[in-house]
Specification:
This protein is of the alpha/beta class. It has helices at 2-22, 32-47, 70-88, 100-110, 118-125, 180-193, 216-233, 331-350, 364-376, 387-397; strands at residues 55-58, 93-94, 130-139, 142-151, 157-160, 164-167, 200-208, 244-246, 257-267, 270-278, 284-292. The protein folds into three domains: 2-172, Rossmann fold, CATH 3.40.50.10610; 180-327, Rossmann fold (3-Layer(aba) Sandwich), CATH 3.40.50; 334-397, no CATH class. The chain contains ten helices and eleven strands.
Length: 398
């Protein structure tokens, strides 16, 4: 009994320390009280009398997929946890998951021989009924933050918050850049939102630095940006279809036609991407950002001057020049694509993954859920939306 009391005190102390340090430097204007009110009222409204004494935990942001620094992301969660505890007024139990590892080490060191396993007791009491999951994305120079509360038993969403937008500071950025999938989605949204009279997009050349020698990564990047731009233009209000197609060339463009071109540079643990949409008379908008190198598929050669076999344990991918895009670009194909993605998102949710909102948009969060599903089922985690993937999801959900 004394051992469990000590464990409880350690967990509570970690909350106090975490909250005290977090209040020193959160993003300006972040109102944790509003998020806490929305979460707790949503839980109370959906769970009724059972809401009291529910065990609640706040899920930590994954460092590799968070578009701001891990320090700032942890501070946001710490402020939310403090607000939740203050507003709960003892009605709920809060579980500090991030304190479990040091706690278990401490318990194991002081445990006395006996029939009861103290580690098992700690783990049993560390379970959570409700997991609060945050979503952070970048939009232009801002950060957009929201939370949802999910039942750990069946994944049902019991509460969600309104999104809040905050100005992004240089100190809030991750030191080594963005996750690759997040970067491409952010680039596509940024470029599409900043051009006027958009009628069509051509996917032109992307080079390593200023060299014109092609690389497997450049070809892969072209294909991925074509996919992301197709997703982004579905949100553009237009009376006609906005086609996106791979097309090499450097000639003059007609009004309303924009060509994507780009370069990338290797910067140690990061890769800097520079992507531009250029229109008639050279009018252009440019997006530039660093990407974490480790989030790029390892088998893609980045430097044409470095033989791929010189990288131990990495097999080279065969490369061939990109072929013309023959995929449908009609409104019917767009609707079918949205329905397919939405079905995949629903199936992923039913299998316990978190693809984000079921809205038919292939976002970075949806790709991460696909990759998690692929890893757990022995497939190569490429995050691609294919008919084969949807078929496998249907089979697994039966």
């Amino acid at each position: 009994m004394n051992l469990f009391i000590r464990a409880t005190v350690i967990i509570s102390a970690s909350f106090v320390l975490l909250s005290a340090t977090a209040n020193a430097g959160t993003i300006n204007g972040w109102i944790a009280d509003r998020f806490a009110d929305e979460i707790l009222s949503g839980i109370a409204g959906s769970q009724g009398a059972e809401a009291d004494k529910l065990r609640i935990a706040v899920k930590a942001f994954a460092p590799d997929t968070t578009p701001i620094s891990a320090r700032v992301a942890n501070e946001l969660n710490a402020d939310l946890l403090t607000a939740l505890m203050n507003k709960s007024e003892g009605r709920h139990v809060f579980v500090a998951r991030e304190a479990l590892k040091p706690l278990l080490r401490d318990v194991s060191q002081i445990a006395l021989p006996g029939p009861h396993d103290p580690v098992e007791s700690v783990l049993k009491n560390a379970r959570a009924d409700i997991l609060v999951i945050g979503s952070i994305r970048r939009s232009r120079g801002d950060v957009i933050l929201s939370y949802k509360a999910v039942k750990t038993f069946d994944g049902a969403v019991v509460a969600s918050t309104q999104s809040q937008r905050f100005p992004l500071r240089d100190a809030d950025l991750p030191a080594s850049g963005l996750d690759f999938d997040q970067a491409l989605a952010a680039a596509a949204r940024y470029l599409v939102q900043r051009v006027d009279g958009l009628d069509a997009i051509q996917i032109g050349k992307i080079y390593f630095r200023n060299e014109e020698e092609p690389t497997p990564f450049a070809s892969y990047l072209r294909d991925r940006m074509a996919d992301e731009l197709r997703q982004s233009v579905t949100g553009v209000v237009s009376a006609t279809e906005i086609p996106v197609a791979l097309k090499d060339g450097s000639g003059e463009l007609d009004d309303g036609i924009y060509r994507l071109i780009g370069n990338y540079w290797l910067l140690g643990d990061s890769v800097e991407l520079s992507l531009s949409l250029r229109g008639r008379n050279g009018v252009a908008v440019t997006w530039r950002e660093k990407v974490r190198r480790r989030t790029i598929p390892a088998a893609l050669a980045l430097d044409p001057k470095v033989p791929q076999h010189s990288r131990p344990g990495v097999a080279a991918l065969p490369w061939s020049p990109p072929q013309p895009d023959t995929r449908l670009t009609t409104n019917q194909a767009r609707v079918q694509g949205l329905e397919t993605v939405a079905e995949a998102q629903r199936l992923l949710q039913s299998l316990g993954y978190d693809p984000g909102p079921v809205d038919g948009f292939l976002t970075a969060q949806t790709r991460q859920a696909i990759m998690a599903f692929q890893r757990n089922n022995g497939s190569g985690p490429d995050g691609r939306m294919t008919r084969a993937l949807v078929g496998e999801l249907r089979t697994k959900s039966r």
